[in-house]
Structure formats: structure tokens, C-alpha cells
Amino acid sequence: MNGNQLHLWLWLQLACTGIVYPSLVVGYIGQAAYLSKHLDQVDHAFFNSVPTPVFWPVFVIATFASIVGSQAVISATFSIINQCMALGCFPRVKVVHTSSNIYGQIYIPEINWIMLVICLALTIGFRNTIDIGNAYGIVVIIVMLVTTGLMVLVIITVWQRSIFFALSFFFVFGSVELLYLSTAFFKVRKGGWVPLALAGVLMAIMYVWYYGTTKKYEFDFQNKVSMRWLLNLGPSLGIVRVPGIGLIYTDLVSGVPAIFSHFVTNLPAFHEVLVFVCMKSAPVPYVPYHERYLVGRIGPKEYHMYRTFQPSFGAGWGQGISMDSSIN
Questions:
Q1: Where in the cell is it found (predicted)?
Q2: Alpha carbon of 287 to those of 56, 167, 202, 312: distances in Å?
Q3: Is residue 229 included in any domain, yes or no?
Q4: Which of 244, 240, 242, 245 is nearest to 277 (CA)?
Q5: Contact 173/148 with Cβ under 8 angstroms?
Q6: 2-47 pLDDT per residue, tens
Q7: Domain for residue 150, yes or no?
């Protein structure tokens, strides 16, 4: 973190501590005081509690706050999907780094369109802000509870503090959040089931993809072809070699994948030049041209077999396989 970033971070801390947090507390206290005398106006307590002379300025500020909040949700979704994809828990999608200097500033077109469809479906399906508020309230409380639970892991593993300290932290903050969550259960039937269903679908997709990817890698690793078997086939690999370049995708960074033996035993001919392509995620906005691919020879030169290792990153950089005069 350089000097400018540190300076900005300090200003953000001061703004959140000295302006944002006190404003939220005062706003919630005012709404609570208003509801204590107007229990019949629970559905629109915020705008009903605003005095008439300042209604429109508050309305404008609330609209801008909603825009900022929506942008934060979109950016957070892109970041989470990118991290899940790097961990092998989500299908591969195109990640566009919108800045070559700011780390983590990304855009995912597919996820953006999916979020658009989901937002339109929820708006058309709910048709009122009350049910949307019920769904949003449950999500906020669950996020707060999950964040507290993850903070316990940070206290134990990163800060190296005692388990008693971590449990005390969870007891102080988690008990309040669990109390809020218990009061929100009655909203499940009134729209709160939608985010829970979406979370279940996403968790199922992540689990299935991670399970399948892990099993596939384990199979390839345990059944990869040995170099001795490959050398016994001879330069022609026991099949007719035709002009051209054949690309075989694999997750293995070393060795020959088991699918290659399937090709050799079932295909009467194969390309004269074989390239095993291995792509890995690189969480950086830009990679120099000379580092975008690594090509190495597999076996003797007359076999014409090579392996290329490519980082997979944003804006289509390095997506093609470059071959120079060494592959002949």
C-alpha cells in the first residue's frame, strides 16, 4: 500500500467513524422513536418519519445512496465470482480487467446479464417494495452473521489470538445478529424465500462444479501416461501423422493426460504437431507479452509434442496460443 492509498484509507476510516456511523445511529433512533407513536405506519417508516420541509432533499440523497449501494453489490458479485472461479468452484467466464493499475477492478459480462435478468424477474414478480424489503432484510442479516463467523476465523488464524477471545467476539456481536435473524423468520413466506432459494441454487452449482473438477483432476493425475509408454510408441505414436496442429486441453501441468492414450488407441490418424494446453487463472490486470505463454517440448524432438502453459486473465489477453520457430 503506497502513501496515497494509505492516506485515502485513513480518510475513509475517519468518514465512516465520524460521519457515516453516527448518521446511521441517529437515523435508526429517529425511526424507532417515530414507530413508537405510529405503529400503523411500519411499512413506510423511513419516509413517513422524515419532516415535510426536508422530504425531497432526503429523497434525493436516499436515491443516490441506493445507486451507490447497487454498484457496491455488483462489484462485490464480480469479485466473489472471480475468486470462486480461481478456486475451481465456478464455471469459467470471461473476466475483463477494467484497469491496469487498480487491482481487483473487474467486469464479468455474463454475470452482469444474469443479474439484469434476475433483477427484472424479481421486480416483476414482487410488484411492491414491501416484499423486496423483506427479502433484502433477511439477506443483510445473514451476511452480517456470516461476516461475524468469518471474522472469528480471522481472529484465530490471522491474528493468532486465543479461541476464548474469538468466541467472546462472536458472543457479543453474533448474539445480536442471531436475535435479529430470529425476528426475520416470519418474513420468509413474504418474499424472504427468494434469496434463500437463489443461494441454494448457487451453492449447488459451486459444489457440483468443484466436485466434478476435483474428480476429473484426480483421474487425470492418477492415470496420466508415462513417458516410457510414450517412447515405446515411436515418433509416429503408432498412428498416421497428418499435417497440422492438434490441441489437447488438460489441467495437468506435467505429464501426458490419460485422454491422449484414448486418442491414440481409437483414432487412425492425428496431427503432426501435438500441443497440450494448460490454462491457469492469473489474478492480475495485465501480463507482459513474453510471459503470456510458456512452451516446452515433451519427449524427443522428432515426436513433435509440446506443452504450453497459459495464464487465463481479463480482456482476452493471451487467449491465443503463440508458436514460434522452435515448434517444427
A1: Membrane
A2: 49, 43, 31, 10
A3: no
A4: 245
A5: yes
A6: 566 677 778 888 888 888 888 888 888 888 888 888 877 766 777 8
A7: no
